[in-house]
Write a structure and sequence with these properties.
The chain has about 160 residues and is mostly helical. The protein is built from eight helices and three strands.
């Protein structure tokens, strides 16, 4: 189904028609909010919307019954695709970034839409190992034992030298 663009006025009428789904001209006149347009104006828009493929007609005696052909969801999808193509380089990501930057969407808004069991945790950073520094700052026990034995030998040598 090819969907055609609507003018702002046609869109306003279609919003009413989508609510009614199937109707007569008199129904439109009754349900249109104030200020009500002239009946000829409504007739003209109905004719245009039939030509554009948004409405179908069935003649019942001397009057026409109108029925919506293009569902609201289809029109909305059409508009969003057009908007995405013309202003966001066919990128959903760009749309989301725009919505976030304009504060029209928050991360809380998205929580209920994605059933992803992903928790973002900070990455564990392994501490760098400085082996040489470790040996200097925390010498192993074996080295401590060797060092202390060497110190004892040095002390004994000094004592022997002092005794003569």
């Amino acid at each position: 189904m090819k969907i055609n663009h609507l003018t702002a006025a046609e869109e306003n009428f279609m919003k009413l028609f989508w609510k009614m789904e199937s109707f007569y001209l008199k129904d439109v006149m009754e349900q249109h909010p104030e200020p009500k347009p002239h009946q000829n104006t409504v007739s003209t828009y109905l004719k245009i919307l039939v030509e554009k493929g948004y409405l179908s007609t069935v003649k019942e005696g001397r009057i026409f019954k109108y029925t919506v052909i293009v569902p609201f969801e289809e029109y909305r999808k059409f508009l969003l695709k057009e908007l995405t193509h013309n202003f966001f380089n066919d990128s959903g990501k760009e749309i989301l970034e725009f919505l976030f930057s304009e504060k029209l969407l928050t991360q809380d808004d998205l929580k209920g839409y994605f059933d992803l069991k992903i928790e973002i945790k900070p990455a564990k950073v392994e501490e760098p190992k400085f082996e040489v520094a470790e040996e200097i700052l925390n010498p192993k026990k074996e080295k401590k034992v060797k060092i202390s034995k060497e110190k004892e030998k040095d002390k004994e040598k000094k004592k022997k030298k002092k005794k003569p």
